[in-house]
Every structure is written in structure tokens, then in C-alpha cells.
Amino acid sequence: MDATLAGHLQELRRGTVVVASLIALRAPGYGYSLLETLSRAGFEVEANTLYPLLRRLEAQGLLTSEWNTDEARPRKFYRTTEQGDALAETLRGEWSRIDTAIGDLSVKSGSEE
């Protein structure tokens, strides 16, 4: 993959990881399990990208967290807040609108040939 394509793909994926994380964390989860969940869904995210994102979303009030110390190794669990849920739904709606608009452009440009 050339550098131009890689850069554009990274830019495209950046916003989708936010939406995917907010949706996935409607059920409490910790960072590593979120990495696995996102990967299984087709979102390839590295830990050094995800953890700062989780901290930023928490600082914005979109996620809440708490430590679980019941296990041998303490884990920080995250969960989407009500504000995070609302943002996720708004972003999903916008994603759908953009997808439709791109589809419409594809159809129009294909029929004008």
C-alpha cells in the first residue's frame, strides 16, 4: 500500500473508531477487550492509539471509568455516558447520511458517462 493511500485510510478510520468505541462501550469494557472487539468488527486500532482516545473521550464526558480490583490484576473499565450515547447516535445518523450521499454521487456520475 502506498503512503498516500495509507494516509487517506488512516484519516477515514480515525472518526469511525470514536463511534465504534462509544457504541461498543455501552456495555462496560476495558481497553484490551475493546481492542479485541474492534478488531473482530474490522477496526484495526493499535493500543497506542486507543488508550489516548479513551482518556480524551472520558475527559470530554463521553465515557466514565472505574477500577475493578476484584481480580489479581486491577483493570480500568470504561462505559459510555448518556452524553456519549447521544453523540454516538448523532454520529451514526450523520455517517448514514454521508454514505447515502456518496452512493448518490456514484450513481449520478456512473449514469452521466
TrEMBL record:
Residues 26-86 form the Transcription regulator PadR N-terminal domain. It holds the Pfam family PadR. This is PadR family transcriptional regulator. It comes from Paractinoplanes tereljensis.
